[in-house]
């Protein structure tokens, strides 16, 4: 039988990338096999995300967006073509990244998926007494009614007034407006009531009694006596002082607006984004504002009528409060042919939660409280039952936040997606996930400018023998310590009941490296973040993302720019503001951005280097001022390592700047340039930047939430050295972590479990890592035993 030629359509089995130059990539050319699982490895900052997300996935999304009409494209994010010569063989890309879900107080796990929408339809059809359509069961829909008349032309110049009424039934609790909690302001944080205004009663940051205009408005308003202690105010004076309506008053001959202190504080502080505030202002807001569960709806966010509308003895509030695995069983027991298609879809969604290891969540859990790993897995749910094939799925460290016990389950999901005929691209550091790859691409050899090249392409066995940084460290195993430090005190937690904790009593040792472990959802964060006494001197470095625009960079974020600007100003006899690209020194053409942005409506905006300052961001006269032989733009172009050396000695010596740079180098960020926009940093780099900033804080107890997130195997060793140095310097370090190397290195381990959700919330082990391995009764003990090879 004659051999038939392969069909032309079967020859496109590769995604070809040639000449990729996005961010730090150096003319990268690779071929990625389709319908296979390809893992991208390399140290943090080596260019993995630049290649996978900013090149392959970004171009796929851009090409898909171009298939829509210009009208529709106007509503979509405008994407620029990546810096690459050839991209061939692309398929539709579905990105499942680690971006935390929005922390909008109205967003929950249920609203972020389709589960809530389907439950609302179910209850609107079956619950008794009937409240209304699906919107009537939504805590984001308010009940409104209106009526009025409007004139209608009837022809031949005649008009007639018709009365119209409109009403909509919503499920929102009126008191808390669907938020589940009400806020209150602690007046003792605003002023000292034993003093008068003229004695400086205000304790609000920036409110000084003698010169501050805001304070003078209150003192000279005529509503209160500025020389009388606040506690002696009459009822009328106190009402005017705290809640007075806005009114014009004359202060020193100037017309100003007076309004009560409470609305003033709400507008000045509470209406602003907390993350963008200066640290001391943020600390004040956190002290002054207290949140309590809404007494009307008991935190359910729903109106009384909705809570009274039940089906099978449960209201929609009860259903959303159940753990998803229990809710799945409840839904499975409903036999109602009239809503059978809806029940099938809801059952599939809830079962996907359980399958992906999130059965311990409840639908009413605020989405902003999910960890990066949990948020990523919630996003995966809609893709698990998809019938689409020949799609490219792109994952950013899908094992983040997963206990070693759960990684096997995640691996199975990735392989299932591949076996359906999809291309799966995974950026990952964990050896367990690298091991299941069909194809591995290792980038490096270093980070930043020292990375951006392909060091290895091939099989996992080939990587192991390749001699690259990843290959050498792939089989690294941290050994258990021979001796552990002894605690010099304890942080006592008593009767902790936050979330799923069951009246937990535990002593967290101080003066040592204490690691808190347990499967995802076992109660680790609830124990440490939710139960550590407020009086404890704690510095918390959690996983919340850094807020920053493209004008923010490591120098501005860490406070490094401040001593540098002052040194430049002093050396040249000019103002410090000249040496800020966000202030007086900014190039007038680009306003200190270094580039000119041109908005092209539904097309991708174009950024071109500013011709006036040539991308240096400063006015030409500013660049003539020098310090240590360098101008300010040359200093911002230095890497942390270069700057550390530059500011260490000689005429350029600035001790304050050198101290900050040492901390940045300590956390492994020596390759970052001082002026690199924060928006270009990877997730791991941002967390380490935050850690470096907090290392200057005065707190005696450091709480780190999964600091190995985004860290390469080779960098974990450096992190362990940093944790040791913190403990040796007299600090107490508490780490919430799953990484076996960190567990093995601990002086003391507190293991929570035994499972997740209502199966967790108990301390199942306390002791040294060696005792945990010897005990072997917990999932963590078994995983650590396998890791150290016992």
Automatic annotation (TrEMBL):
Question: Can you name the source organism?
Answer: Streptomyces cavernicola
Keywords (A to Z) from UniProt: ATP-binding, Cytoplasm, DNA damage, DNA excision, DNA repair, DNA-binding, Excision nuclease, Metal-binding, Nucleotide-binding, Repeat, Zinc, Zinc-finger
Please state where this protein is localized. Cytoplasm
Question: What does the organism's lineage look like at the top?
Answer: Bacteria, Bacillati, Actinomycetota, Actinomycetes, Kitasatosporales
State the InterPro entries in the record.
ABC_transporter-like_ATP-bd, P-loop_NTPase, UvrA_DNA-bd
Q: Which family does it belong to?
A: Belongs to the ABC transporter superfamily. UvrA family.
Q: What is this protein called?
A: UvrABC system protein A
Q: Where is the ABC transporter domain?
A: 9-470, 484-779
Q: Which Pfam families match?
A: ABC_tran, UvrA_DNA-bind
